[in-house]
Amino acid sequence: MDHTANPQPPYAAPVLYTQDGTPYYATQPAPAPLALYHPPAPLPAPIHHPGAALGYLPAPHTPAPLPAPVPGRDPWPARLLAGGIGIGAGGLGVGFLLQTLAAATTGLGLLVAALGVLYLLKNSGGGGGRGGQGAVNVSVNVTNRNR
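Below the sequence we write its predicted structure tokens.
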């Protein structure tokens, strides 16, 4: 906080008192003597129609009819523009849908291909036309005949 912007010490609001001794804090001198708060007077009781007890009520107020719209020019350029914007937005939405669908099917295709390769590696014999016969035990005896 920059204390050089305001070289004056912070202002302490003086405490003033009303005639009945209630304190209040004034940041500036009061332009006029303080007035006590008086709540507003209650609203008068509603006036009832004398015929309301007998079921007769005054006719409700009917508003004046709205003026008839003046026939104007048909805003066909605006309608064409709105239709073009709507068609373009719809095409954009369909494009995003197809792009998402293509990405999803590509991902599923790659997943299926990877699982297929793993299945083939696990269940194949590993080569040589044996057709997956399993492991073969090999025993090799070497003798040196030059001795």
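The beta strands are 15-17, 23-25.
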